Give the backbone structure.
Amino acid sequence: MKHNPLLNVLLMTGMLLAGQVDAAVRPLLTRVVAYAADRETAVEVVNGSSETYMVQSWLEDLQGGDSNIPLVLTPPVMKLEGNTQGKLRLVVMKGAIPQDRESAYWLSIQEIPPKAKNPSENRLLVAIRNRIKVFVRPDGLQAGDARVAAAQVTWSIEREGGKNWLKASNPTPFYISFGELAVGNGAGKGIRLEDKKQMAPPKGTMRYLLPQTLKPGKLTVIWSSIHDWGGVGEEYKAGVAL
């Protein structure tokens, strides 16, 4: 293939713009909670532009796999007129989900920009993809219990390979998404941990790398969790020894 410098410039421009341009099509919520007891769960999607977009949606597990997903998503592709809202629907396959804990998946919503009306018109099309978490709850798990689950997390220190890790132990059946996760040797907010985006899984553990600048001694862990509506809940504190 003949090298095309202009094509390279356009591709680089597209990548730069992708981080700056707001999506025309986006979900109204930053996370979805689907209950197995419900017939279906609606996911509201809005097209904030004046143009018509096609919208493609799909589900993946937390590792990016798309097989054996115990959810049915419809429609996988839909047309969304300008300045209107649409609905995706999630149906939980009850028998295929764990019955003693929450499950989590990724929902990707990809906008497909409209083609130029004039074939001779030069347009740089940037398609934006939104990805939000879907939490699936079996019968018996309630929203009120999820809201206070973060208070039950306990903390310890692990050492491996010359590095120190803060380990979160989550005894609850809910995923804990941290809104705030920081550690410090004294008063104040401490140092925010960069990998707080890793959720503490239900009835499991997750660990977070501690900065090497922390001095040995007593540490204060400060944390809060993101609740079902995407806001940040109550803040908690606990002490651990480094």
Notes: The two ends are 58 Å apart (CA to CA). The first helix runs from residue 5 to 18. The CA atoms of residues 116 and 123 lie 7 Å apart.
